[in-house]
Amino acid sequence: xxxxxxxxxxxxxxxxxxxxxxxxxxxxxxxxxxxxxxxxxxxxxxxxxxxxxxxxxxxxxxxxxxxxxxxxxxxxxxxxxxxxxxxxxxxxxxxxxxxxxxxxxxxxxxxxxxxxxxxxxxxxxxxxxxxxxxxxxxxxxxxxxxxxxxxx
Length: 152
Prior knowledge:
Number of helices: 4
Structural class: alpha+beta
Largest sheet: 4 strands, antiparallel
Strand order of the largest sheet: 2-3-1-4
Radius of gyration: 30 Å
Number of strands: 6
Low-confidence stretches: none
Mean pLDDT: 77
Distance between the termini: 91 Å
Helix content: 25-40%
């Protein structure tokens, strides 16, 4: 450990004191879909979300009704704050077409989605039952079948 590393270690020990286990928040980008009709709605949402502690930037695309919040924040707190404006808000439910195996499937396709996007659906494992089809003509003349043709 060099001199710089030693100084950082000592500095961390001195400054942390009893808050040794406090976890630092990660820089995140939270995308929301917020119903906005006019410029007033847009300004209200931007002002409200900017007031959250840890927010670095708020970008709004009113045409797509998409709000992107970047900062040291948690997604559920940003969503709660967006809902407090009285607007309908949810986490951004869309992904690009290229990331979905079947973009025109019933659950993925959404008429309200922005161009080039479909609804994000989780890929659930297919749990269908497999039924085995046995050809009745194969078992009709089998030696194991007691009702087989007795002509043989």
